[in-house]
Every structure is written in structure tokens, then in C-alpha cells.
């Protein structure tokens, strides 16, 4: 099928599960009630994605408070009690983060329950997102390894263990989220991809890396406004990604200033093009999405083009996210009719 659809990862949490419109929401329940609420929210979003025509569905990160720390909470060697404030994404903004204080070790499976729940309740392809090693390294304070690369590689080993287990759970695509690549472009082309390779080593399922310009929060929107008429960060590491072992590269496109011509640098890869803007409540039209496909096909072969979202939809209103998913499904269908 031409132009299959998927999404970057997160979806908004219903108000009965957690606080809304927040990246770090507080849960509404605890214990067994919380576990049931997470399950129910995951099943709800699975149904919504299927109804919208999404071909490769996700669990919407309904069981995680945050895309990074949903994994980190299963890692020993991290002090979550004594958090510190530090600049992240090359000091784009500050965050209160936990500290690495001892050798890192997985305490158990991180996302087994979500993967098995999805595999049981949908016949569609399923995608699970994991934070990439560079991005995790950039979202915690290292007080043990004393070296950014060593810290990232330690996380890569843990991610690899979880990714291999997810594959056995029936996951079709394991995706690593690396927004930090856009903040440290030269390092991304070097040890960033080396760490990514370490995280996906041994996987036979499809692998993906998602590199965006961040959620639609003020700090990221302000940063985008400072980048000028063209956003060319991808240019620094796309050639290296084209030579990498990752199968799919997910990027930002809709309403962005990324020159579509940069996608030509990913020759040979499946390209997941962000067709949904996560920084606005405006709903894309099918025609707008299909027109974007027309432009992208100048640089990406149609059998390599997948349609997705620019980033996660977590901070948006549930109704807005639902409408955007419907637009994505309809836009892909229109593009298929144009290019059949």
C-alpha cells in the first residue's frame, strides 16, 4: 500500500487518567486503579487510531508520564529523589532532572505490558517508541560516568535489552526518539549514530529513529522562531543516517521551514514525513496533506514514503488529536488516489 500512516508516539491522556495539556501530568489514580486506567486509555486510543485509518498504531505512551522518564523509571543507578535543574537540548531550556549516581542497570521490563496489550487487541502493525540514547543522556544529570558518550552508551545497552524483548512481544517497529540530534548535530553524525546502532543491535524487526524540533511548547516554538527562513539542522547528519543500519527516519515537515530537498539525503531509507503539525490546534485538511505529499515525492520515492506526525500529540486536547488523526488518514487516502 502506498503512503501507510503512523504517528510519532505520544497521544493526549484522557482527563480521567491524568492531568491534561501537560508533558509531565500527574496521575489521577494509583495502584491497581491506575493500571486499569492506563489499560483503558491505551485500548481507547487503539480504537481511535484504527477508525482514523492509521496503519501502524502505537499505544500513545498512555502508561508514561514523559517519553524519556517512562523508561528511566525502570533503571537502577538513578536518583530520582534529589533532582537538579540543568539546561537540556544544548541549553535551549531548563528542566528538573534526576541524576545518574551509580552503574546503570535495568530493574525489569519497561514496556512489556503495553506491547502485549496492543498485540492482543489489534491486527495492525504496532510501533513502540523508546527514548534514544543521546536524548536520555541529555535529559538526566550524569554524576557517575563523567563522560557524555559513556553515559549514552550505557543507556544504549539497556535500550537494546528492552528493544529485543519488545520484538519478542510481537512489536513490528521499534522506534528511538532522538530530538537531541537536532541540538547536537555534529555529535549526532558521529557517536550519536554509534549509540543508536548499539541500541538497535540484533533486531530483525523494523527500526526507526524520530528526529523532530520538539513538542509544541513555548521553549521549542521560540527556538524555531530563531532559526531563520530555513531549518537546515537535518543536513548535518542525514548523510550519516543514510549510511546507518536504521530502517526508517521520521522527520518534521508540515508547517515547518525544513527544505523538503533535504529528504534526498536519506536515499535508501523509508522516510516518515511529519504531515501533522503538533504546535497548533488547527486541523489539517486532506488536501493540504496530499499537496505536501506531491512536494515530497520530488525527493522521496513513493514506495519509501510513510506519513506520520511532526512529533507527539501529548500536550493537545484529546478532541484536537482525534481530528488530526482523522485528517492524516483522509489525507493519505487522497494522496493514494492521486498517485495510484
In short:
The chain has one domain (31-339): TIM Barrel (Alpha-Beta Barrel), CATH 3.20.20.210. The chain contains ten helices and ten strands. The chain has helices at residues 31-52, 69-72, 112-121, 133-137, 148-168, 185-200, 218-225, 238-242, 286-296, 318-339; strands at residues 56-58, 75-88, 93-106, 125-131, 141-142, 173-177, 206-211, 248-251, 270-274, 305-308.
Write the layout of secondary structure elements.
Elements: H1 31-52, E1 56-58, H2 69-72, E2 75-88, E3 93-106, H3 112-121, E4 125-131, H4 133-137, E5 141-142, H5 148-168, E6 173-177, H6 185-200, E7 206-211, H7 218-225, H8 238-242, E8 248-251, E9 270-274, H9 286-296, E10 305-308, H10 318-339
Parallel strand pairs: 1-4, 3-5, 4-6, 6-7, 7-8, 8-9, 9-10
Antiparallel strand pairs: 2-3
Helix pairs in contact: 1-3, 1-10, 5-6, 9-10
Number of strands: 10
Helical content class: 25-40%
N-to-C span: 10 Å
The proportion of residues in beta strands is 15-25%
State the name of the first-level CATH class: Alpha Beta
Can you tell me about this structure?
The chain is of the alpha/beta class. It has a single domain, classed as TIM Barrel (Alpha-Beta Barrel). Helices cover 36% and strands 19% of the residues. The chain has 10 helices and 10 strands. The chain has helices at residues 31-52, 69-72, 112-121, 133-137, 148-168, 185-200, 218-225, 238-242, 286-296, 318-339, and strands at residues 56-58, 75-88, 93-106, 125-131, 141-142, 173-177, 206-211, 248-251, 270-274, 305-308. The strands form 2 sheets. A 7-stranded parallel sheet has the order 1-4-6-7-8-9-10. The protein has a 3-stranded mixed sheet with strand order 2-3-5. α9 links the parallel β9 (270-274) and β10 (305-308). α1 (31-52) runs parallel beside α10 (318-339) and α5 packs parallel to α6 (185-200).
Amino acid at each position: 500500500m502506498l503512503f501507510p500512516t503512523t504517528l510519532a508516539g505520544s497521544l493526549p491522556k484522557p482527563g480521567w487518567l491524568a492531568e491534561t495539556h501537560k508533558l509531565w501530568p500527574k496521575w489521577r489514580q494509583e495502584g491497581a486503579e491506575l493500571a486499569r486506567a492506563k489499560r483503558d486509555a491505551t485500548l481507547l486510543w487503539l480504537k481511535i487510531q484504527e477508525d482514523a485509518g492509521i496503519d501502524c498504531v502505537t499505544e500513545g505512551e498512555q502508561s508514561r508520564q514523559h517519553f524519556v522518564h517512562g523508561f528511566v523509571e525502570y533503571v537502577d543507578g538513578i536518583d530520582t529523589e534529589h533532582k537538579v535543574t540543568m539546561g537540556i537540548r544544548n541549553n535551549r531550556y531548563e528542566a528538573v532532572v534526576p541524576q545518574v549516581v551509580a552503574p546503570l542497570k535495568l530493574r525489569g521490563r519497561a514496556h512489556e505490558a503495553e506491547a502485549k496489550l496492543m498485540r492482543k487487541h489489534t491486527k495492525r502493525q504496532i510501533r513502540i517508541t523508546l527514548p534514544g540514547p543521546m536524548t536520555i543522556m541529555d535529559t538526566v544529570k550524569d554524576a557517575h560516568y563523567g563522560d557524555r558518550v559513556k553515559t549514552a552508551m550505557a543507556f544504549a545497552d539497556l535500550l537494546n535489552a528492552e528493544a529485543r524483548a519488545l520484538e519478542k512481544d510481537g512489536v513490528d517497529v521499534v522506534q528511538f526518539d532522538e530530538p537531541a540530534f537536532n541540538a547536537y548535530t555534529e555529535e549526532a553524525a558521529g557517536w550519536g549514530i554509534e549509540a543508536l546502532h548499539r541500541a538497535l543491535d540484533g533486531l530483525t524487526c523494523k527500526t526507526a529513529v524520530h528526529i523532530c524540533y520538539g513538542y509544541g511548547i513555548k521553549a521549542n516554538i521560540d527556538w524555531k522562531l530563531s532559526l531563520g527562513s530555513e531549518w537546515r539542522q537535518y543536513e548535518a547528519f542525514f548523510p550519516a543516517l543514510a549510511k546507518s543500519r536504521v530502517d526508517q527516519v521520521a522527520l518534521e515537515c508540515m508547517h515547518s521551514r525544513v527544505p523538503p530537498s533535504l529528504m534526498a539525503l536519506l536515499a535508501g531509507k523509508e522516510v516518515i514525513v511529519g504531515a501533522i503539525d503538533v504546535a497548533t490546534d488547527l486541523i489539517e485538511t486532506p488536501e493540504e496533506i496530499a499537496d505536501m505529499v506531491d512536494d515530497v515525492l520530488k525527493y522521496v520515492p513513493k514506495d519509501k514514503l510513510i506519513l506520520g506526525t511532526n512529533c507527539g500529540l501529548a500536550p493537545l486536547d484529546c478532541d484536537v488529536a482525534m481530528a488530526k488523526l482523522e485528517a492524516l488518514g483522509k489525507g493519505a487516502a487522497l494522496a493514494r488516489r492521486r498517485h495510484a
